[in-house]
Amino acid sequence: MPKKEIPILLGEWWDRNPMDVQKLALFTGAAPNVSDAYTINGQPGDLYRCSSKETIRFPVESGETILLRVINSAMNQELFFGVANHKLTVVGVDASYTKPFTTSVIMIGPGQTTNVLLKADQPPGRYYMAAHAYNTANAPFDNTTTTAILEYKSAPCNAKKGKSSTPIFPQLPGFNDTATATAYTAQVKSPTQVKVPTVIDHNLFFTVGLGLNNCSIPNSPRCQGPNGTRFAASINNVSFVFPRTNSLMQAYYQGQPGVFTTDFPPVPPVQFDYTGNVSRGLWQPSKGTKLYKLKYGSTIQLVFQDTSIVTVEDHPMHLHGYDFYVVGMGFGNFNPSRDTATFNLINPPRRNTIGTPPGGWVAIRFVAANPGIWLLHCHIDAHLSWGLAMAFLVENGVGKLQTVQPPPLDLPRC
């Protein structure tokens, strides 16, 4: 039982308004500028210029157990996180309990949360908490490290200088250490046996990844992507376009035509070697506001397949309105006749955000028991803006508890 809880909010910092960074990228069609720093609870820490005075410090008593609620609120970057000389016992992810396991480092993607227990069982002193990038794409990234300090209240001071001793630094994996990230993710499981859907109504296969749109005027101010193109992203070659005139929910329940269609493809329109050399003719996705319709209570298996278009990458995929069970993952192209046999249908972890292994696949299962329209998207903010999203339309069931309730009569209008 922890004596106290500490929220650890990991973030990114730009030396300008982040919305301006995003707007510039959308205007030019190029990738957004990488961040200038990472932060822990809003502060960059000792390793950046002019920020050491505000470095976050967490005082602890020797022997006490602390619950760290670690949240990756970064816009575009997955992160490794650790605490020098201290083991972390993972007990929860994405608001669901997990079977406890001990690790020296966690990997956490944007939108994910991880609860860890830390016991202050080291010699009284000062220890850095630190986070830096886990980067899987062949693209520039912020290769800096943010720090905070775990400070034992009984730590001795340096008598000569009248200052505390220099904190000990943790050993974090290299930015491209996919083996460590994969091994960590594989350890996350539910604490007991869970009820995973075994009879599947919808067997979906979604390719996720980047693309490039050709420009009518190459190398113009609005065409600054690779080789005179604009960056795009898609699921099953459909780059999602957000509605501009009305919300999807309003359009559906008010019967307004022309806002969306329900013909989102359950499998890629064209099959290809997803993680090999992809023909340039498949790099440009089509644009559309396409939904996939599900009956209330139907069961879904969804395999996310990363592609090597532009670059392979770990895409943290997030589904609104649902938790799901992560039943399997692997590298290369998903092979149902081979890979389905390895699925964990006993105690898979329950999550709401899961990353695709770079150049690999991940499989989830859930029951469509929450009516409404729910966005599925990559939690890397730039990828969402480029169209790496779709939405499920879950129809009403029977009775009030299985039906979307209308907005109250006094709901303020926009």
Automatic annotation (TrEMBL):
Primary residence: secreted
CC cofactor: Cu cation
Domain of life of the native organism: Eukaryota
CDD domains xrefs: CuRO_2_LCC_plant, CuRO_3_LCC_plant
GO terms for cellular component: apoplast
Textual note on the cofactor: Binds 4 Cu cations per monomer.
PROSITE patterns: MULTICOPPER_OXIDASE1, MULTICOPPER_OXIDASE2
Subcellular location: Secreted, Extracellular space, Apoplast
One matching Pfam family: Cu-oxidase_2
EC number: 1.10.3.2
UniProt keyword annotation of Glycoprotein present: yes
Residue span, Plastocyanin-like domain: 5-154, 263-396
Coiled coil: none
Entry's Gene Ontology molecular function annotations: copper ion binding; hydroquinone:oxygen oxidoreductase activity
Catalysed transformations (reactions): 4 hydroquinone + O2 = 4 benzosemiquinone + 2 H2O
Biological process, per Gene Ontology: lignin catabolic process
Keywords for this protein: Apoplast, Copper, Glycoprotein, Lignin degradation, Metal-binding, Oxidoreductase, Repeat, Secreted
Biological function: Lignin degradation and detoxification of lignin-derived products.
Family: Belongs to the multicopper oxidase family.
Protein name (database record): Laccase
Lineage: Eukaryota, Viridiplantae, Streptophyta, Embryophyta, Tracheophyta
